[in-house]
Fold this sequence. Notes:
Blueprint: H1 34-39, H2 56-68, H3 76-87, E1 92-95, H4 102-113, E2 117-121, H5 128-132, E3 133-138, E4 143-148, E5 155-159, H6 166-170, H7 173-178, E6 180-183, E7 186-189, E8 195-200, H8 213-216, E9 221-224, H9 230-241, H10 260-271, H11 277-292, E10 296-298, H12 302-318, H13 326-337, E11 342-343, H14 345-349, H15 354-364
Parallel strand pairs: 1-8, 1-9, 2-5, 5-8
Antiparallel strand pairs: 3-4, 6-7, 10-11
Amino acid sequence: MSQQYQPQPPGAPPSPTAQVGAKIIRTGEAPGAGVAEQAASSGPDAGRDVDPGTDPVRQALLDVRREVAKAVVGQDAAVTGLIIALLARGHVLLEGVPGVAKTLLVRSLSAALSLDTKRVQFTPDLMPGDVTGSLIYDGRTSEFSFREGPVFTNILLADEINRTPPKTQASLLEAMEERQVSVDGVSRPLPDPFIVAATSNPVEYEGTYSLPEAQLDRFLLKLTMDLPGRDDEIEIIRRHSGGFDPRNLGAAGVRPVASAADLESARRAVAEVEVSPEVLGYIVDLVRATRSAPSFQLGVSPRGATALLNTSRAWAWLSGRPFVTPDDVQALTLPALRHRVSLRPEAQMDGVLVDGVLGSILATVPVPR
């Protein structure tokens, strides 16, 4: 039976049940989400525990979480979300307070997947050319040559993206949507795979610039990275007391267990995951419900419905199923949709939360049987 949600009274904070999507998959509350449920268990070897059948590619991607856990403690949900984004060719917005290992997470994931990664610290004086690259005049040849910017990588860590002005933020739009950079009328393709993992600090507002809705809509998922629990924090301190150096992933034992070729094979397999007409209708009904929710002034666009479809497919494949269930859709609803809606001012003043409204929608939209 599909996971059901309890409706939230207006203004009340969402219950733990309504937040299942926020934890993806850390809690494993959605039936069939055994992969993530067991991966969230304690111990650095979590992630090898789900039977992937006879598919070595799926097993390799599941092993990525075990490798990342050697460096990052208690963020299994974010790791799973990033893997889903890579499978669905989408970008991720990571939100969390400073010090929850957002940068270390991306570096560890890249190392486990044998992918190139570059980090850009977004600041108020950062220029678009500092991200995309620019033409440089060569005095020896009297010609201009293009010098690639850090966007030419597999995983671009856009650190504190909301600290740079909209003009520089917009320099990423073409890269995120078209997978290319255009300079002086020439389009240059980006490597494949390519995703942007942007971080945003939710507690500081001084010196920040809100991301426009058009840019937020280009992120496939918005993942929240919470502070670790007590046991996880003890493990973090224990590792550091034992000499753990976050700048030396090799010494931590993080090694490549998958490659870009594995990722491409997995993408082809995800594309073959079946979606029934009933589940397609369920996705559309959820999205359309956000457009009529009294608390929302902006609902989810068809691009959001596509994002929910693609991420549900990727999660079904990681879970070892050749078809998408309503539970897969429910598990990804919050991370796929929470950044595509906006609350009415009066709802914000009443203390209504986006995740609570989405949880209520999940509770009221009929689930196909």
